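BUG: 3D viewer hangs when loading the predicted structure for this chain

Environment: internal workstation, default settings.
Expected: structure renders.
Actual: progress bar stalls at 90%.

Input used:
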Amino acid sequence: MPRLSALAALGLICGLCAAGPSARASEGGGAPGRELLFGIPGTQTQPRGATRGEWNYTFLRRNFTQRIFDTGQHEAVRSQHRKTHVVTWRAEHGLTERVQADAEVVYHAYRQHTHSPGDEHDRNDDGDFERLYAGFSYQVLEESDAQPALRMGGGVLLPSRAETEGIGQEAGLDVMAASGKDIGHWRVGGALGFSMTFGNRAHPADPVLSNLALVPISKPHDLKTLRYGVAMTRAINDRWQGNLELIGETYEYIELNQRRHASTLSLTPGLFVSLPSDRFDGWVGFGVPIGLTEQTSHLGVAIRTGARF
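Structure tokens produced before the viewer hung:
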């Protein structure tokens, strides 16, 4: 997977440079701010004029099955052994004291060993941009002794599809809310997100077959995703922070040209360390995503790096 390796290497170099050490304590108190999480959005808007950039990498290993049409157009089961690589770039920029601009790019690639009907074996690699997001968020509530912080946001999902086939994710909308509060030595938080994309297709439109009512081979589907998560963090000392996150997702996807439902649930323990510098607030985090359900039967490694400047 040369393209993935190049992107990962570039991201790692940029992430490590950006995460150069920092002598300033991050806002929010605690080790590196206690706003650093692997899968849940932060609750605080960036200060006016400040920019926060991140590069994150996740590796997952799992086995699963998929229902397909075989060459005779009968239903069959395909078993797949997959190694997944996810690279995420994020940027947040404070526009006012309460409003910030948000952008996120997610590149998803995998190496897969497939057992198809008839004991056929195949190995294949694939990768594409899974999420292209741009939007804004607003600090609804500032944290105080009496109330938690609350940040809400929304934006658009740009199309990400194979140009020559016209399939993949279409344009959509995405909204989210994140809340958190310090309770003693702990910080607790949670987030809820919803997205919907319109007119997605699972395979190419065939100009001949699509005119036949018998075989709607490229039927468009609107697909919805609900994301949720809760987290606890605790400062270990001036530089180290411990994390525990429970992250879930209920989503729709296309299989056998029909819209189907699935869900995931994973637990991610991890550690963050701040990297002191006179110029940036920088950090590096290491986590272990553990799948808790049959559909989330993965075990992986997550690395998160970033800086605010």
